[in-house]
Specification:
Blueprint: H1 3-14, H2 18-51, H3 55-104, H4 107-111, H5 115-157, H6 159-166, H7 169-206, H8 208-213, H9 217-269, H10 275-316, E1 338-346, E2 352-361, E3 366-371, H11 377-382, E4 392-397, E5 400-401, H12 407-411, E6 414-417, E7 426-427, H13 428-432, H14 441-451, H15 454-458, E8 467-468, H16 477-489, E9 495-499, H17 507-521, E10 525-529, E11 541-546, E12 549-554, H18 556-562, H19 565-574
Parallel strand pairs: 3-10, 3-11, 6-9, 9-10
Antiparallel strand pairs: 1-2, 1-4, 4-5, 7-8, 11-12
Length: 584
Amino acid sequence: MNKKHIYVRLLEYTRPYFPRLFAALGCMVLASVFTVIPPWLLKNVVDDVLIAKKMDVLNVLTIGLVLLFTGKGIASYGHQYLMNWVGQHVVMDLRVGLYDHMQNLSLRYIYGKRVGELMSRITNDVNVLQNMVTTVIVDLVVQGITFLGMLGFLIYINWRLTLITFAILPLTFFILDHASKKLRFVGHAIQEELARLSAIIQEALSAIRIVRSFVTEAMESQRFKDQNRANFKALMHGVQVQAALSGVIEVVLIAALALILWIGGRDVINEKLTPGELIAFLGYLGFLVHPIRVFTRVVSSMQLCLASAERIFSIFDTPCEIRSPEHPVPLGVIQGAIKMEDVWFAYKDEQWVLKGVALEACPGERIAVVGETGGGKSTLMDLIPRFYDPSRGKVSVDGCDVRTLDLTELRKQIGIVPQDPVLMKGSLAFNISYGFPQATEENIVKAAQIAGIHTFITSLPEGYDTEVGERGVTLSGGQRQRVAIARAIIRNPRILILDEATSSLDVAVESQIQEAMEKAMEGRTSFVIAHRLSTVRSADRILVLSKGHIVESGTHDELLEKGGIYRHLYELQFGGEKNNETRP
């Protein structure tokens, strides 16, 4: 991505705030003008006050100096406040836009990234861009106008000395150009290392139980220390480049100043230049060092900003693979008929997870999907709410290809209970009604009763207002699973997907959750993904998925009679129990 394109895209985010931006630019111009004038007063101080001894000139100069710096202070306050206002709004817009875009990116992309690195884009990289708006632009405008104003005065005082002075500038610009390329590379490295550091923190804290269970605190601490050192090295490399650049530029400019002092001193001795003019010239030259030093710092900041902008826009440029069509087919309240026709799917090219799958589910039918781990069971179910699109084939709901439907309208009629239910930080009522803000207290209680969690909730001191910890860690596995069931059915979805909802629970709790699941599935087209075959015996139909194919289909008894893969799995779990043994 070239620089010009990045600047144009960033400019688009400032467009809504142009009035304040132009007001800020006006303040910057005034601040620059007030900065340029004082060195010129040195000429009058020397020639008209110290040499000519004019008292009236001294009075005017004294009052004028106070007024100039008062004006500069007011203008500086104006541009700092206005630019920070604009910068903060640009940051908010970028952050919200980036977050919204991430929400719509495919699961394939999200799962392929470390969460900490994506968080770093929204936090660290966006903050760096804020610095560009609030500081870098101010420095460019203020110091740029100051530089041009001082250059004009230098030419007016003595054009010959000015030409000699600026004969050295090409060397300065060459150094700046060379350093900018290096600083941009360093900027990328700094932000990447910082993103990795954020990722390590996020991973360790989100998996703190695993860390403590496997006694890997020391290992995680060492990982953090190692990444901290890598981050430190990247930062110090940037400091080295920036410090070296500043030092070299300063030496070049001081050398120019010394040369001018020698030549100008000779002109004063030869009466070709007044002492005041020389003092003013040297004053401007001395003040000129500051804008150029600021430009040096700005070059460094610009490269960091460009590196951050590239990382941010690379996410914006990542297409949303799954999106609603521009003119979706109206769906209405669905019946729950599902049909898959010759469905193929691969996460990576030609590495097929599903191969020519065909299935049809009638409204209200309960279908169980079983098979070996990694056989594609969860992937198959992910196609119904359109988390992914099939590589080939078609998935239909009530006869409509899901790719022609509005995603929100479709997903609101599908309830999903995952294997590891994640609860959001907030109250139990908030978690049950999550995604259904219009839910009434009656809706929440009814869903909790169906899920078998109402009695437990009412036994708590704060009832439904009880706060759960992050990810619901203050609840047991069975309790979280019941809350997840209540959350899935509160909207009365016509399709229910239970993805190994009892696999992590003990047998006693599993039996209780199974009762809740049975109530939840009543009247709904339901899909149950399970490893434990005890949970699928009552299904209307059981599908056996193996290596991407549906290889068996039938009821529990029918599949046992066939003596195929299902029979083999059943015997592995129950030690060869007969198919006529106790059923739920």
